[in-house]
Amino acid sequence: MKLDIIGDIHGCYQELQTLLKELGYKWENDQFHHPEDRTLAFVGDLTDRGPRSLEVIRFVYQMVVEQKNGYYVPGNHCDKLYRFFLGNNVKQQHGLETTVAEYKQLTKQEKDEVKHMMITLYENAPLYHVINELQTVIAHAGIPEKYIGLHGKKVKTFVLYGDITGEKLADGRPVRKDWAQDYHGNRWIVYGHTPVLEPRFVNQTVNIDTGCVFGNKLTAFRLPEKEIVSVKSSLPFVEEKFRY
């Protein structure tokens, strides 16, 4: 099995298509595939902040649900959009407002289609994917070894938000512990959530959220090769968004 895991996209559809081309994916007979039979995976946070969130939803839905040639795990932004589509009273901030603004421009039929796609993606996704063939776990904000194989509220909170303490930084972001420093498992943990300037390798973990929506780049991690492939963002660079 050969896998290409894509970091947080956040509505950067143009960069996603550039990265997929760089990775060797092609359209043939209305199917998107790789000549070496590689499979795509997505670490979540498909939407919000970037300019073309709905096209990202459509593409990931096509790969994961229609073609059944992709893996998807939800991120915290996916969770929030899902709750918005269910009709919950969700605050439209931290990027959700950009996705909602796009959504409001659609026709009734288009709205129904996009809502169906996102709800279907979310409701059929596991909290995290364990891919035994590659000794790999894909989880949006990471996962400690003790939680692999478990589910429940604590696991969901960790997978969506990371190892949060409940405290807040001056800019309102949650304080997170660096859980990867304490990971000593044999499986790769591939995750995103916290923007980094370069893919961050710690023990057998790699953070591939290289902050495309904040002007840095969109990154893929290829297995079994353990290779990084990135493309530059077209958006303005926002230095303060990067933790490492």
Question: Which keywords apply here?
Answer:
22% strand; 5-stranded mixed sheet; 14 strands
Protein described:
The protein has 244 residues and is an alpha/beta fold. The chain has a single domain, classed as 4-Layer Sandwich (Purple Acid Phosphatase, chain A, domain 2), CATH 3.60.21.10. It contains six helices and 14 strands. The chain has helices at residues 13-23, 53-66, 76-85, 96-104, 108-123, 153-161, and strands at residues 3-6, 26-28, 31-33, 39-42, 70-72, 129-131, 136-138, 164-168, 174-176, 188-191, 200-202, 205-207, 217-223, 227-232. The strands form four sheets. Strands 5-4-1-13-14 form a five-stranded mixed β-sheet. α2 crosses α5 and α3 (76-85) crosses α5 (108-123). The longest helix has 16 residues, at 108-123. It is globular and about 50 Å long. Pfam families: Metallophos. Residues 1-196 form the Calcineurin-like phosphoesterase domain. GO terms for molecular function: phosphatase activity.
- Characterize the biggest β-sheet: 5 strands, mixed
Helix content: 25-40%
Structural class computed from helices and strand pairing:
alpha/beta
Please tell me what the overall shape is: globular
What is Rg?
Answer: 17 Å
**Strand order, biggest sheet?**
5-4-1-13-14
Domain Calcineurin-like phosphoesterase: 1-196
Pfam families: Metallophos
Protein name: Protein phosphatase
InterPro entries: Ap4A_hydrolase (IPR050126), Calcineurin-like_PHP (IPR004843), Metallo-depent_PP-like (IPR029052), MPP_PrpE-like (IPR041780), Ser/Thr-sp_prot-phosphatase (IPR006186)
